[in-house]
Amino acid sequence: MDNESIYGLQKLDSNCNNCKFMIRDMDKHKKSLDDHHRWQFDYFTTIKNKLIENAKKAKKLYYDLEKFDSLLTEAEAMKFQFDKKEALINYGRCDKFNKDVSFIPNVCQLETQKCFVHRKD
């Protein structure tokens, strides 16, 4: 897709991400990323700890060493990877209306079609 086509789609989408009145709030975005990272890591840790707990239970209650080894190996092999797709919301301030805004880049925003001015215009 050429630049002219992308420009046309951006004007049609009217997304704050491409608006010349957008002033990004990187601190708020970083906090959002940090929060999502923490939530994902906590969830990952919960799943990993549950596997370890089940492994210990298999060994202690059922004397199933094969299941113990299998579950423990699975838990030890788990590696945390942060998925940024969970934190797509961006934050900023609209200089035209002097108000805070949040948006997901590259998503059509019907509510901004009357006020949107492309940053390259």
Placed side by side, the strands forming the largest sheet appear as 1-2-3
Q: List unreliable stretches of 5+ residues.
A: none
Number of strands: 3
Overall spatial form: elongated
Mean model confidence by pLDDT:
96
- Tell me the distance between the termini: 20 Å
Order of helices and strands, N to C?
Answer: HEHHEE
Radius of gyration: 23 Å
| Helix percentage range | 40-55%
Secondary-structure-derived class: mainly alpha
Q: How would a textbook summarize the main sheet? A: 3 strands, antiparallel
Helical region count?
Answer: 3
What proportion strand?
5-15%
Summed up, the domain count is: 1
Describe the secondary-structure layout.
Layout: H1 3-13, E1 22-24, H2 26-62, H3 65-77, E2 90-94, E3 99-103
Antiparallel strand pairs: 1-2, 2-3
Helix pairs in contact: 2-3
Quick overview:
The chain has 121 residues and is mostly helical. Helices cover 50% and strands 11% of the residues.
Features:
single chain, 3 helices, 121 residues, mainly alpha, 3-stranded antiparallel β-sheet, elongated
Architecture overview:
This protein is mainly alpha-helical and 121 residues long. The chain has one domain. It has three helices and three strands. Strand 2 and strand 3 form a beta hairpin. It starts with a helix and ends in an 18-residue tail after the last strand.
